[in-house]
Design a protein that fits this description.
single chain; mainly alpha
Length: about 350
């Protein structure tokens, strides 16, 4: 059996484990995965992307994405008030810039593309789902679930792995099971702690509950907060969505670490590796001390790894089309290195 097939089988096992744990303890699993696996994932992936030149055409193109991540952080913490009102536009700009930086080599064309992207915010800002898609779904569930599935599919096609293609199908099957198998109508354990710790993600759950038609929750306000929290944390609809979210995040992290032998993110100078481990341990300690403090401490890092991955997202999707084109027309497939 090829080593890549062994890795794919391992991933199927990790997928099954994530699925079972998400069914049993969705809120607890998410908080554990996000606090323990998340920081190590951010640190190791950013280091790996740095070694790969961030998959952009220019050596310093990544600076644009780093700057945008800083602006988003300023908006999140309301350090500069007006930044908060345009945070969604910064994410939108970063997403399209990620594509431009990965696709365009000529500096003049690249600059014009960035200017055009910034100018386009004048028109897309009025789109009804602008904030929902770019500020809520893109850096969360699209990043951890959809992009992970695309990485897996490209890797399977490139390596001609039947097991790999099967694992992509199983990923969606696991996600579907959360909506097909009834969830208990029970209050989550340690409700007060979960509400305080998970509060920053409650808007994601509210939108997903509405998106899947499980209930109709109005935007958070002083009048709706109690009802929204009760649905998210203490209803079968809330458990269904939380299972999906916990599964998506947990498997996203485990998928990354399971492919260490392929990605080789650990092959870095020892001082850098020690630094990564030190920051990771400090981050986990902060989460244990106060989950809210941990979220704030790692906000920039978590958003930075999402934005820096946009060029790779684009190359992965284009690579999938190239692989299909290769099979249909016998043309040469994409040779883009990929983490999945």
């Amino acid at each position: 059996m090829r080593s890549i097939d062994k890795i794919d089988l391992t991933n199927i096992g990790l997928m099954a484990l994530s699925c079972v744990l998400a069914f049993l303890l969705p809120f607890e699993l998410f908080l554990f995965s996000y606090a323990v696996l998340g920081p190590l994932h951010y640190l190791t992936e950013i280091g790996w992307l740095h070694q790969k030149g961030y998959y952009t055409k220019g050596k310093y193109d990544f600076v644009v994405l780093v700057a945008l991540a800083c602006f988003i952080t300023l908006g999140f913490f309301k350090i500069t008030p007006w930044f908060n009102s345009v945070t969604t536009n910064f994410i939108y700009i970063a997403f399209l810039c990620g594509i431009a930086l990965a696709a365009i080599r000529d500096n003049t064309l690249k600059t014009l593309a960035v200017i055009a992207i910034v100018f386009s915010t004048l028109f897309v800002s009025n789109w009804a789902y602008h904030e929902t898609f770019f500020a809520i779904y893109l850096p969360t569930i699209i990043h951890v679930f959809l992009f992970t599935a695309l990485f897996m599919l490209y890797g399977a096609l490139k390596n001609r792995s039947t097991i790999g293609v099967l694992s992509v199908g199983l990923l969606f099957l696991c996600a579907g099971l959360f909506f097909l198998i009834p969830a208990p109508i029970a209050r989550a354990a340690k409700l007060e702690y979960l509400q305080l710790s998970y509060g920053g993600f409650a808007e994601l759950n509210r939108n997903l509950i509405n998106f899947f038609g499980l209930a109709k929750l109005n935007p958070f306000s002083a009048e709706t907060a109690a009802q929204n929290f009760n649905t998210i944390f203490s209803s079968k609809e809330g458990f269904v969505v939380m299972r999906f979210v916990a599964f998506a995040y947990t498997y996203h992290y485990l998928n990354w670490f399971s492919k260490t032998s392929v990605i080789q993110w650990h092959k870095v100078p020892k001082p850098r590796l020690y630094f990564v481990l030190a920051v990771w341990l400090a981050s986990v300690a902060l989460y244990l001390y106060d989950y809210g403090v941990g979220l704030k401490w790692l906000f920039l890092l978590s958003f930075l790894h999402v934005l820096l991955e946009f060029p790779l997202n684009y190359l992965s999707i284009s690579g999938i089309f190239s692989e299909f084109k290769k099979r249909l027309f016998g043309e040469k497939g994409a040779q883009t290195p990929i983490k999945a």
